[in-house]
Design brief:
- The chain has about 160 residues and is an all-alpha fold.
- It has one domain.
- It is about 75% helix and about 0% strand.
- This is DUF2593 family protein.
- Keywords: Membrane, Transmembrane, Transmembrane helix.
Length: about 160
């Protein structure tokens, strides 16, 4: 038993070499995504959440968008772990996922694509754009933590 406790099996070896902005960004990605799921379940309740999943499975287009949203969720979590381990593809994958989400939410909010499962409904186009940018502001800040500081950029070289 003592041999098991002596082995160092931490998932992030060399944590002292990870820059603080990268560490904060990785934890922020994981925390916001998991907290978002908890808040969604709390807001909808289990019965309404199951009803949402059932309604999403009624048509092919809404099913594909629902599955894509789940894939994006897991891709973001995987990218967060990868970027904290020093893999450059983790931060680029997170950036690509955020751009894809931003484009879909903009197109769906403007009413150019159906179904509008993940859209923002406001009055005018300028209100939709400002609401969308405000909703994505935490993700923009995380991206800035990954790409702007010099020690973050050096960590991925």
């Amino acid at each position: 038993m003592s041999e098991v406790l002596r082995e160092d099996k931490t998932p992030f070896r060399g944590m002292e070499s990870i820059p603080v902005p990268v560490w904060i960004a990785g934890i922020a990605i994981i925390a916001t995504r998991c907290l978002g799921v908890v808040l969604l379940v709390n807001e909808l309740g289990l019965a309404e959440l199951m009803n949402f999943v059932h309604r999403s499975a009624q048509a092919w287009d809404s099913t594909l968008i629902f599955i894509a949203s789940q894939l994006i969720f897991f891709i973001e979590l995987r990218c967060a772990i990868a970027l904290m381990r020093g893999h450059n593809w983790g931060r680029w994958g997170y950036l690509a996922a955020q751009l894809l989400v931003l484009i879909y939410m903009f197109v769906a909010s403007m009413g150019w694509v159906y179904p509008e499962i993940f859209s923002i409904s406001n009055g005018s186009d300028s209100q939709v754009v400002s609401s969308l940018l405000l909703q994505k502001l935490p993700d923009v800040l995380v991206i800035l933590l990954l790409f702007a500081p010099k020690n973050s950029r050096q960590f991925y070289r």
